[in-house]
C-alpha cells in the first residue's frame, strides 16, 4: 500500500539526534499542511540520511510517500508518520510531476486528400 500526502511545508522542526542500542540516530520533523476545504497540519518525520537526501524546504509544495506506525510504551500509544520518499511538484504541474495538458494551438486539422476513397491504407484489417 502506497500512502501519499500532498501539501505545503509550513515549518521544519529542529533536528534531533542521539545514540541507541543500534548506534547513532538522527531525525527531523516537518509540518505539512494539506489542501482542500478543511486543511490539516500533519507532522512527518524523516530519519537518518533521508534528511539530507530529501532536503525539504519551508514553503515548498511536496508529495510525501509515508508509512504509518504505532507503538505502545507504558500503556500509551504513539504514532509516527515516516517519509520514505519525497517528490517535489514541478512548477505549474500536478502532484507526481505531471505537467499541464497541452493547450490547443487554434490551428485546424489538415483536410484529408480529395480522392481519399481510392487510396488504400496500410492497415492489416
Automatic annotation (TrEMBL):
Pfam families: DUF3127. Residues 87-125 are annotated as: Disordered. This is DUF3127 domain-containing protein.
Amino acid at each position: 500500500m502506497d500512502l501519499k500526502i500532498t501539501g505545503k511545508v509550513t515549518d521544519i522542526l529542529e533536528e534531533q539526534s542521539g545514540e541507541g542500542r543500534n548506534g547513532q540516530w538522527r531525525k527531523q520533523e516537518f509540518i505539512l499542511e494539506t489542501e482542500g476545504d478543511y486543511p490539516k497540519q500533519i507532522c512527518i518525520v524523516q530519519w537518518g540520511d533521508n534528511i539530507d537526501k530529501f532536503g525539504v524546504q519551508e514553503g515548498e509544495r511536496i508529495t510525501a510517500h509515508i508509512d504509518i506506525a504505532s507503538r505502545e510504551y507504558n500503556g500509551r500509544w504513539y504514532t509516527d508518520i515516516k517519509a520514505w520518499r519525497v517528490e517535489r511538484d514541478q512548477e505549474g504541474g500536478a502532484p507526481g510531476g505531471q505537467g499541464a495538458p497541452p493547450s490547443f494551438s487554434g490551428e485546424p486539422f489538415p483536410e484529408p486528400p480529395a480522392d481519399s476513397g481510392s487510396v488504400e491504407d496500410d492497415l492489416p484489417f
